[in-house]
Amino acid sequence: MSWEFLAAQFAAQFGLWWIIWAGILLGIVVGILPGFSPQNTLIMLLPLTLGIPVDQAFAFMVSLYCANHLAGGVPAILVKIPGSGGAAATTLDGYPMTQKGQAQQAIVLSFTASVFGGLITTLATLALLPWLSQIGLYLRSVEMVVVMLFGLTLIAVIAAKDTLKGLISGLFGLLIGVIGTDHIYNAPRATFGFLELYDGVPLVAALIGLFAVSEALVMIEEKLIVGKEGRERATRASWADTLDGLRLTAQKWWHIVWTSFVGLFIGIVPGAGASIAAFVAYQQSRMWSKHPERYGTGVPEGVIAPEAANNGVTSGTLVPTLALGVPGGSTAAVMMIVLQYHGMVMGPRLFTTNPELAYGVFVAMAVAYIFMIFTILPLARYMARIVLIETTYLVPVIVLVTVVAAFVERQYVFDMALALVFGVIGYIAHKTNYHVTAMLIGIILGPLFEQYLARALRISQGDLSVLFSSTLGNILWAFLVLSLVLPALKSRLRKSR
Amino acid sequence: MPPKAPLGADLVIPVLALGFAIYFFWSIADLVWEAKANGVVIGAVLVGLVVLQLARIAADVAKGRGDLRADPLWRPWDTFAKRLGMVLVTVAFIALLETLGLTLSLLLAMAVALAIMGVRKPWTVAWISVAVAAAAYLLFIAVLDSAFPHGPIEKLFS
Questions:
Q1: Cα–Cα distance, B106 to A92 (Å, whole number)
Q2: To the nearest 10°, the Cα dihedral for A237, A241, A243, A247?
Q3: Cβ contacts of B144 within 8 Å, gap of 6 or more
C-alpha cells in the first residue's frame, strides 16, 4: 500500500461526504435511543444499501456504525441509560459528572475520546492490517470461554462495591442469557412456557428494563437529576464548558491513545465486542491510575477509557470480517451480507483483488470520524440542558417511551412486558447494590458463552478439563484468579497499614 | 450502638437467582448433556455464590449487625405511591395496546402517568401527552412501519 494509493483513497472518501454525513446523523439518532441497534437499523435499510454502489453503501454503513458507538454515551452520561451495551461502563463516571454539574464536560470528553480513539485505531489498523488479522486465529473456543469469564469477573469486581454481589449479578445475568433453545438440538430451556423466549432473552428489552426503567423508578425520589450545586452549574453552562472539556481532552491525550488500543485488540476477537472492551479499558485505566479510589465519583478518565475503547472496537471488529471472512460482531455480519450481495469474496484475497474496497472501508471510517467531531461537538451545550428538566416530566417519558422502544427489536408486545419485568428486577438490584451492569453484560455474553463452551465440550466429549488444556487459556485463567484475589489482598494490606 | 442493617432487602436478588437456577435445572433434567452442560456449569457456580451470600447474611443477623427488614425497597414512603403507580400504568398501557393501538394507549398512559407524578395543570398534561403520542406515531407507524397493534387513530390515518 503506497502513500499515493492512500491519498487517492482519502480523496475518494471525502467525495462521498454526503452519504457519510447521512450515516453520521442517522447513527447519532439511533445511538442515543436505547432499543435501536446499528445492526437493526442496517437491516431495515438493506433495500437502500443493496441498491447503491458498494463503495457508497460501505461508507454509509461504517459512518452509521461509528456514530452509533459515539452517541450511545450521551444518554449514559445524562440520565444513566446507555444507548447500547458498549456504553454501559460510561455510566460509572459519566453520570456522577452530570450530578456534579459537569454534564457538558463529560459529553465533550465522550465525543473527543470516541472520535480520536476511533481515528487513531483506524489509522493503526490501516498500517498493521496484515498482522492484526492473525490475532483472531490464536483464540479458539477454550480461550474464548475464559476471555468471557474474565470480562465478566472484571465487571463484577470493578463495577460493584461488593465483589460477591457483583459476581452473583453477573452469573445471574449469564444464566438468564442461556434461556431459550440450545444450539445443537433446539431443546427449550427455562422458557417459562413462552414461545417468545425460544430465541433467547431479547437484549434490547433487558437493556431498557435494567437501565432505563429501573433508573427512572429510582429517579422519582429526586426533583432533578442533579443536586443544588449541579443545577446552578448546569444553568450557567456556556461555551466555556465545551472548551473546558476540550482542555481535559488535551490533558489526557495519552489516556485516549492507549485505551483505544485496548478496544482495537478486543474488537479483533470475534464476538467479544464493545461491552467487554469498554469494561476492560475502564478496569485497566483504574488499575494504572494514581488515584483509583476516585473512580466512580466522576473522574474524566472514567469517561475517556470506555468511550475510546468502544470506538476502538469499530475498526477492530472489521478486521476479521474483511481479512478472514469471520464477522467480528452482528453489525459486521450485516455489512458482510451487503458485500457478498455485491459479489465480494471476504478473506485475505480481498486485499489483492479489491484493495480499493478493503482499505477504503477503513479510510471511510477515518473520514467519518473527522466529519463527526465537527457535527456533534457544538451540540454538547444543548444536550447537557436535559438535566434541568424535572423528574416529574422526565420519568413518565423515559418509562413509557423506552418500553415502546423495547418492541422494535423483534416486534413482540411480549418484549415490552419483559422490559418492565427487568425494570423491577433492576430497581431491586439498584436499591440493594447488586450491580445491574454486571447482570446486563452476563445476559449479553450468555448465548456466546454457551456457543463456545458447547464447542469446547463437544471436542472433549464432555470433559471439563478441556478448559485448562491450552497455554494461552491457562494464562488467562491465571489473570482471572489474580483479578479476583488482588483487590482483596490490596484492601487487606491497606487496612493493616 | 450503630443501627442494624436491613438485610432482608439483600435477600431478594439471591433468592430470585436461586429460584431461577433451580427452575433451570428442572427444565434441563431430561435433556442430553450437550443441551444442559452450560446451564449446569453456570447454575452450579451461581448456586455456590448464593449459598455464600446467604451464609454471610445469616452470620450478620446472628451477630446482631443486621435484621431481616426490607424497607430500603420501598423507602422513601412519599414516593412509593408514585413508583407503584408508574409500574401499574405501564402494565395497563401494555394490556390496552392490542385494543387501543399504540397512539391512543400511549396518549392515555402518558396523561395518567403525568398526573400520578404530580403534574396538575391540564394543558401541560395534554400537550406533553399529545406530543409524545404524535412523535411515537410518526416514528414507529408512519416512518418505520413497525408491527405495533393498530387502533382507532392508526386506522383513521391509514
A1: 32
A2: 180
A3: A44, A408
Are B83 and A220 inside 8 Å of each other by CB? yes
Q: pLDDT by residue (tens digit) across A221-280?
A: 888 777 777 677 777 777 888 888 889 888 989 999 999 999 888 887 765 577 788 888
Q: Do the Cβ atoms of B128 and A457 come within 8 Å?
A: no
pLDDT of residue A329: 66
HSE toward the beta carbon, residue B87, CA cutoff 13 A: 18
Contacts of A189 in chain B (CB under 8 A): 24, 27-28, 31, 35-36, 39
Q: Are A331 and A39 in contact (CB under 8 A)?
A: yes
Mark yes or no for CB contact A457/B13 under 8 Å.
no
A192 three-class SS: coil
Model's pTM, two decimal places? 0.81
B145 has a pLDDT exceeding 90: no
The model's pLDDT over A94-129, given as tens digits with 9 standing for 90+, comes to 989 988 888 888 989 998 998 898 888 888 888 887
Q: Exposure of A229 by Cβ count < 10 A (0-12 exposed, 13-18 middle, 19+ buried)?
A: exposed
Say yes or no: A189 contacts chain B, CB-CB below 8 A: yes
Q: Closest partner residue to A221 among B10, B76, B147, by Cβ?
A: B76
The answer to whether A431 contacts B93, with C-beta atoms less than 8 Å apart, is: no
Q: Which three cell numbers stand for residue A132?
A: 492484526
Q: Is A397 on the interface with B (CB under 8 A)?
A: yes
A175 touches chain B (CB under 8 A): yes
- Nearest CA distance, A404 vs chain B (angstrom): 8
Amino acid B1: pLDDT:
64
Residues of A in contact with B6 (CB under 8 A): none
ipTM of the complex: 0.95
Q: Could you say which of A165, A404, A425 has the minimum Cβ distance to residue B136?
A: A404
Between CA B139 and CA B147 the distance in angstroms is 12
Q: For the segment B44-94, what is each residue's pLDDT rounded down to a tens digit?
A: 999 999 999 999 999 999 988 888 888 888 888 888 999 999 999 999 999
Closest CA to A303 of A69, A82, A90, A104: A90
pLDDT above 70: percentage of residues in chain A:
92
Q: Is A1:A355 a contact under the CB 8 Å cutoff? A: yes
Identify the pLDDT of residue A328. Answer: 64
Of B12, B38, B146, the CB nearest to A408: B146
